[in-house]
C-alpha cells in the first residue's frame, strides 16, 4: 500500500468511527473501531483509559443527546495521525455528565486528533469548543467553570483491572465511578 493509500485508509477508519458512534449511535459497535488500550484525552473533561470505559463515555453522551450529529468540516491525515474539524449538534434530553437535561438544542465546534495503530483508533485528543455551546443550555460546558480547577483522580475496579479517570470536576468522577 502506498503512503497516500495509508493516509486515505486512516481517514476512512476515523470517519467510520464517527459515523458509527455519533451519527448512527451504534454504541454496541463503537469498540470495533478501537484498540483495547485506547486512551481518550478530553482536556478539561479528563482522560479515559481503555476501550470499555471510552465506549461507556460515548454511550453516556449519545444517551444525553439522542439526536446527536457530528458533521465533518475538514479532515487531514499525516503519518498515523488524523485530525478532524467538525460541528456537533444535538438536543440535550438526558443527564450529561451530571448536568440535568435542558431540552434545548446544543451546538459546538470540535477538533479531534486521532492516532491510528493496527487499523484501529489507539488514542484521541478532543479539543471541543464547548464554550461556543449555549451556556444557558449546558453551563458547565463553558470553559470558565474548569479553567483553574484542580484535577481529581478517580479509580474503579472493573473486572480485576483498575481504570482511571482524571477530571477537574468531582461530579464527573461520581458519575463515572457508579
* Strand order, largest beta sheet: 3-4-5-6-1-2-8-7
Spans of at least 5 consecutive residues whose pLDDT stays below 50 are: 134-153, 157-164
- Number of E-type strands: 8
First-residue to last-residue Cα separation: 45 Å
The biggest sheet amounts to: 8 strands, mixed
**SSE order, one letter for each helix or strand:** HHEEHEEEEEEH
Envelope shape:
globular
% residues in beta strands: 35-45%
Level-1 CATH class name: Alpha Beta
Mean pLDDT: 80
The number of domains is 1
Describe the secondary-structure layout.
Elements: H1 3-23, H2 27-30, E1 34-41, E2 47-49, H3 51-64, E3 69-78, E4 81-91, E5 105-117, E6 120-126, E7 152-158, E8 161-167, H4 170-177
Parallel strand pairs: 1-6
Antiparallel strand pairs: 1-2, 2-8, 3-4, 4-5, 5-6, 7-8
Walk me through what this model shows.
This protein is an alpha+beta fold. It has a single domain, classed as Nuclear Transport Factor 2, Chain: A (Roll). The chain is 26% helix and 37% strand. The protein has an eight-stranded mixed beta sheet, with helices on one face. The longest helix is centred in the N-terminal third of the chain and has 21 residues, at 3-23.
